[in-house]
Amino acid sequence: RDAIGDWSSDVCSSDLGLKINDKGHFMHQFTIDVTFNASLPFIYASFHEVEYLSQWFAPGNCSVTQVMNDFKEGGRYRIKMMEPNGVEMSLTGEYVTLLANEQLVFSWAWEDNLEDSVMTSVNIHFNEVEEGHVNVVLEQSGFMTQEECQQHEYAWMSCLEKLAVLASKQKALS
What we know:
The protein has three helices and nine strands, in the order E-E-E-H-H-E-E-E-E-E-E-H. The chain is an alpha+beta fold.
């Protein structure tokens, strides 16, 4: 855990994590605020470069089996993950905002359509707080249920722990 310097999360809650969408429905959201002991270019690249995504972008014991990525505003991505029991899941979306080493915004949808939330939005801000330390604030919004919101929050935290391990390995190599 020494790769993560500071870690906090605003849990999906009815008072802090609700917004009303354009159809008048309440939408749940969460925010994770974490600081990595790594360079800003490496952390930003880890969110879009295939060689890095394939190493950390699956929660728990799941693994990434395929990444297709057209990293440009309006470009699409698709990430396939596999659970240890062999069940595959596919995530897809579109890049909305790309500001190098500053911000990523993209849509997020599971291809199986088993969730109530058809599409959510991920907004990530990157900030170098001091040399070799990067603060990442990740917000995912648009969940129809608090349960889905919490599941995604826990999955992101699991993934970000994997990214911290990858970052510490990368730092050791440089």
